[in-house]
Design goal:
Elements lengths: L1 H22 L2 H10 L2 H18 L1 H4 L20 E4 L2 E14 L6 E12 L1 E11 L3 E9 L19 H37 L1 H16 L2 H11 L6 H16 L1 H14 L3 H8 L4 H9 L4 H24 L11 H5 L5 H6 L5 H24 L5
Antiparallel strand pairs: 1-2, 2-3, 4-5
Helix pairs in contact: 2-15, 3-5, 3-15, 5-6, 5-8, 5-9, 5-12, 10-11, 12-15
Amino acid sequence: MTYETSVYAEENELAAAEQSIYTANSWKLMWWRFRQHRLALISLIFLVLAYITAIFAEIVAPYAPDSIERLETFVPPQMVRFVHDGSLTRPFVYELKRTRDPETARVTYVVDKSKPLPIRFFVEGEKYRFWGIWKADLHLFGIDARRQKVNLLGTDALGRDLFSRLVYGARVTLSAGLIGVFFAFVLGLFFGSISGYYGGFVDTAIQRMMEFIRSVPTIPLWMGLAAALPIAWDPLFVYVLITLILALIGWTHLARVVRGRFLSLKSEDYVMAARLAGASEYRVITKHMLPAMTSYIIAAMTLAVPEMILGETALSFLGLGLRPPVVSWGVLLQDAQNLRSISLAPWLLAPGLAVVAVVLAFNFLGDGLRDAADPYGQ
């Protein structure tokens, strides 16, 4: 009797599972398929953590991005340790002593293993304005020593903490990608849908405009803009201008894809039925045709963000985009243009590694969303 009861319970569970699959909406099915793509799921978690770090940059960064220490230039990255004198202890770093090589006169730093500096969490440190509004001094981690700092990624030529600058730069670089993609998608969806839906002269005019935009060489354009922009302009205004120009250049690819999808969708039966039912053209486009492309739009957005990030980073690295005192990953990479600096401090390439990690994460996430949105997927 017990065996029959257990078999009956298993059959009920299988029937309930099958019923949930049959009654699940498209979003739930998409999420179930996406969870099977482990690399995309890990990338999603990594990107969420990256954007949370960028949002709370003032708290995560132990020091201000422009905090200069003349006596701590080119400090190597400090390793966080957990074992001291053979015993397990709380996270700490060893104190660094500044010395000078007698032969090369180069400043070096020697680890003093007799003086561990415990890392404390949620400590009071340098004062700041959170998002330029609220005054606070809470930091995620720090040490109590006054003459020592914890430099997880080392320091640059002016003694500024590279980890703090990397965290602050993430806010500018990652937000530039999202803002640029938002404007690019608004333009791409608008012009692409109109071009594909109406056709005729409107389609021809929009296609010729897109071909003209795609034919403009970007590097000479940026060189001309860099020469034309006054140095005295507000860096925030330059940042907004950079993102808008990236959006004006990057919307044409999406517009062409949307146009092609609209040309095929406007002959579908449900679109014809909506027209015969008296639906307005705006309702046909926004309520019937665009929702049919939702899965593609989501996947395409995740694949377009890294293009914007790479665009901002490359332009700032070449000196054609953002400039100091703005802190972005491209601006930080300007310190890596000097081969001598790289040989002395290879950790200055950390912003480049961060760009590679974020771009790969967005690409993996886009692949996972594209596979999950595939109606013929598993």
